[in-house]
Amino acid sequence: MASSGPNAQPYKRQRVRKACVPCRERKRKCNGKSPCEMCVAYGYVCHYTEDDGLLAPSRMNQVEEMPRDTGNTPYVPLNIIRNGTHSTDTQNLTNRNIIDRTKSRYTIQHSAVAFPRSLGLELRSTNPPRLHCFAWHCGIRPEEKPNFHVPLSDLVTKEEYYRISKVYFSVVHPIFDIVDPEQLGKNVEAYWNGDAETSEYGAVIAGVIALGSFFMGSLGHPRETDIIRYAKGILDDPTFSRIPSVEQISAWVLRTIYLRATARPHVAWLASCLTIHLSEAIGLHHEIDREDLALTNNVSLKRTTEVSEHTRRLFWSAWSINIILSYDYGRSSVVLNRITCKPVKETDGNYTLYLVALAQLIPQESVNANVAQLLQALAAVHESPDAHPFLSLTKADICLSFYRRLRLLNHILDKSVVSQIIDIGNTALAAAFALVKIDQAWWNVLSTSFQYVCVLLAIDTPESLSHVAAAMRTLDNITQVLGTHIAFEAQKTAKLLLEDSVKKKRQEIQQLEQATHQRSAPETTHLLDIDWDALLDPSDTLSFM
């Protein structure tokens, strides 16, 4: 067993039947785990030998108990398996990830960026290479220079911010809990005091102002467009984009929400994908207290494993937006290898947990999902609570997406499934009209209403067609309240589809009527060819016969 060294951690002496190779070579205490605490703290490549065929008791039949993976791919536990005299510890080593706390950077150990440092540690270098992109390119051209930004204080005053932010925290924050109000308040005061006029947190403040202004309707800030451009300029600035951070991800989520409500679907989808990639870049999808996460500094492990509830809410909000938006738009969502971030907690007045739950109901293999998976997911969506009008609209968006895929699979819906779709759709219609009347113009107050009319016409059953009139009335009312070009365009398109449906029904009726006439026509023609005068003339009866 390894003897005590000068750098050993002061914990109670533990007896292990076998120590790892790095701890034995450095004469440090080993707790027998894989990886052990010492290797995790110092970034060593933890591995064991099998010369005597014995394993430490803590490693025998060991299966890591990790948080249940809720990502796009199933989570595979890091099992320690013995196969004869060959250990599969090397598989664990290749799966280990690295968190660089100094730069908020996450990478996997076998990446080109992490390999030089890993090699230096393996060679017991006194000064191992830092986690850095050595020789990533030839360095022929310098990096981009910082951009010039007009101070946000020139666009909006602090008093205007506080007035507009109240709308943001009453409308957006309950659904997308991505900004810490306390931390935001501190940064706002520092920002307007000139401490950080061009910091990346300025993009977060600008995103809050833009969304608050948007949901104020006609009372929004007159320079809302300039504020959006300011936030985009900060996010695209090479000074801040070189090193991703939690603030960047918060700003990108805010920008994605704004683009989803104002821009084309392709632009919003790109922003949501970029947000997930940035989340992966800093390891936001992982819990740092994982045993297979190696740290690149000597900071105490307990101090680095604290992950705030706000950070989890930020990741799951970004993930949910990407999943739901991609599924509705028919594009691929960003697939992360594994997600071990713990679920968010339920709090009063906050509905982020419900939004995440709806996103998790979407089949993981969304492209190849079969009928059974879609029907099961549809039933689960139907049973989910309508805790907020926006959630009712989101339920309808997912439900209508399920129907469109079932239609492509040529599946004939049962009456119970049709009833589920109609129930979800009617609830969404009421929620849409209630939101639009209070100037909360979420994107799906119009899109869900329009798509629901289309689905009712597509189902084409007496039950579905009986709800078309009410759905059209609600769509007309929403259009009149919004009064925008896109709203009138959707209303006109829905009416054209309705007229085409009526025209198709009339053509079908005419075809049935023609079939009825064709059936009686031969009989009538045969009767008209009879010479009734000759038949009734007695003198001509013999010749006729």
UniProtKB/TrEMBL annotation:
PANTHER family: 2-NITROPROPANE DIOXYGENASE FAMILY, PUTATIVE (AFU_ORTHOLOGUE AFUA_2G17430)-RELATED, PROTEIN RDR1. The keyword Coiled coil does not apply. Residues 19-48 form the Zn(2)-C6 fungal-type domain. The lineage of its organism: Eukaryota, Fungi, Dikarya, Ascomycota, Saccharomycotina. InterPro entries: Metabolite_Synth_Reg, XnlR_reg_dom, Zn2-C6_fun-type_DNA-bd_sf, Zn2Cys6_DnaBD. The keyword RNA-binding does not apply. Keywords: DNA-binding, Metal-binding, Nucleus, Transcription, Transcription regulation, Zinc. Its main location: nucleus. This is Zn(2)-C6 fungal-type domain-containing protein. It is found in: Nucleus. It holds the Pfam family Fungal_trans.
